[in-house]
Design brief:
Blueprint (H helix, E strand, L loop, with lengths): L2 H8 L3 E2 L5 E7 L3 E3 L6 E3 L2 E8 L3 E7 L2 E9 L2 E6 L5 E6 L10 E4 L4 E6 L5 E9 L7 E3 L2 H7 L4 H6 L4
Antiparallel strand pairs: 1-2, 2-5, 3-4, 5-12, 6-11, 6-13, 7-10, 7-12, 8-9, 8-11
């Protein structure tokens, strides 16, 4: 069994709606109410997330900060469109001399997507979300709307959206 399939099987990863594979590994039992959220949220959640070569995590946004942690594989690029319209690219990986980072944060409310650096095979990462992730707070980008809002980033929006 190759390493990617081993991770999927042993870690119990399932397909994610945004692309790739994931498994929730932590959900705090402590809940609070937070401004801008409807109902209580766990204070923090954590997942494993795996992307294979040729796959991508489509542009989406959530209401919480999301910290990414690099575990294994090839560098992962996380593309962030800030609320002011700037495009930022974070390279997750362990080659610090080339500007990669073993962890990074996507601020709440920003559009973001990711993909494995070419010619890589896969990236296994973790994501910690606070306040905790809830699909009520998840919004998948619609390509046409994102292109209308941020035409200056048309190439990456087209590459990291579906339909």
């Amino acid at each position: 069994m190759d390493k990617v399939n081993e991770y999927i099987q042993v870690l119990g990863l399932q397909p994610h709606v945004e692309g790739g594979y994931y498994k929730e590994t932590y959900k705090s039992a402590i809940e609070n109410e937070y401004a801008g959220f409807s109902g209580k949220r766990s204070v923090s959640t954590g997942i494993y997330f795996l992307l294979r070569k040729g796959e991508f995590s489509a542009f989406h946004r959530i209401k919480s900060d999301e910290m990414w942690h690099f575990y294994d594989g090839d560098p992962l690029s996380v593309y962030i469109i800030t609320n002011s319209g700037q495009l930022q690219v974070i390279k997750l990986g362990l080659d610090l001399k080339s500007g990669q980072h073993p962890q990074a944060v996507v601020p709440a409310g920003c559009w973001f997507g990711s993909r494995v650096e070419s010619p890589g095979n896969f990236a296994l990462v973790g994501c910690t979300v606070a306040p905790g992730f809830d699909f009520q707070d998840f919004e998948m980008a619609e390509r046409g709307n994102l292109l209308a809002d941020f035409p200056q980033h048309g190439d990456i929006i087209t590459e990291l959206t579906r339909g």
